[in-house]
Specification:
- This protein is α/β, with parallel strands linked by helices and 356 residues long.
- The chain has one domain: Divalent-metal-dependent TIM barrel enzymes (TIM Barrel, Alpha-Beta Barrel), CATH 3.20.20.
- Helices cover 39% and strands 18% of the residues.
- It has an 8-stranded parallel barrel. A 4-stranded antiparallel sheet has the order 5-6-11-10.
- Helix 12 runs parallel beside helix 13 and helix 13 packs across helix 14.
- The protein is globular, with a radius of gyration of 19 Å.
- The two termini are 20 Å apart.
Amino acid sequence: MDMTLRWFGSKFDSVTLSQIRQIPGVKGVITTLYDTVPGEEWNKEEIRSLKKEVEDSGLKILGIESVNVCDAIKVGASDRDKYIDNYIKTLTYLGEEDIHTVCYNFMPVFDWTRTELARVREDGSTVMAYTQDAVDKINPSEMFNSLKSDCNGFVLPGWEPERMAQVKELFEIYKDIDADKLFDNLVYFLKAIMPVCDKYDIKMAIHPDDPAWSVFGLSRIVTNKDQILKLLNAVDNVHNGITFCTGSYGTSLNNDIVDTIHALKGRIHFAHVRNLKFITPTNFEEAAHLSSDGDFDMYAIMKALYDIGFEGIIRPDHGRMIWGEKAMPGYGLYDRALGAMYLQGLWEAIDKNKKQ
């Protein structure tokens, strides 16, 4: 297991590489070329420059989150092959730079959905939260405007202003894309990129849909164990795997996190581990990583990963805003550093107990 932190680049992130370097056990970062438009071929020199910046700090790039999949590929547009070719070129450049894990999603319109970015908790910390009633009462095109005042001046991944300005148009192009079509388009994409993944040992790790049910009537195809296994079987290649995000997959109380980890043995390439606190089954907030702060048994989750022989990359996921920090919601330094240490402490205890 390699502990990492997500880092958006020096231009976009309030957290510095030198700060990340000082978190014990953190070996590298998960990063991206944040200002590259989905569908564009990545620039080789920019990849090299990013890699050099990270390595000069004493860290490594251990994964990319994300090489975003453009809408033309997701809806199966007539020009999708052009964008798939760009994706293949990007994967080639990453492979040539010894980068071997890519997290991505195949969600229509919104990469993830929360209705609050700064819900105040009892202890004064703030967290991201989701309330289905709020979604039911708002127009999709108004969602971004309702949240942007709590972004702390940062651009949220998947909620870029230029993309949110096109929400009506995006809903129009997805209106005839049901779950079967979306799944077929994902399989088409994966089959096209597997040869380059095989060549460079690039593990594609799809992120579960967040939340794990339809939002605004949009199709969802990565929400439960059966759907994930269906995808892994449709493209039965070890390089077609999963980013197992407990805070996304676990939004549905019908999903058994520990059971699913065991079912996905050998295909979990990346783990996002965080905790949620449920008020109702469709009203939840993101909690501290400590088990007792939320509703997930974090020990059981880490033990399940250990028991299946997980050797991939892992990161603490969305953290609270604590100690007066102003950062991108979910991506401050302090609470994620606490989370990284807690997860490593669990792993060490599990490992030592097994070896006694």
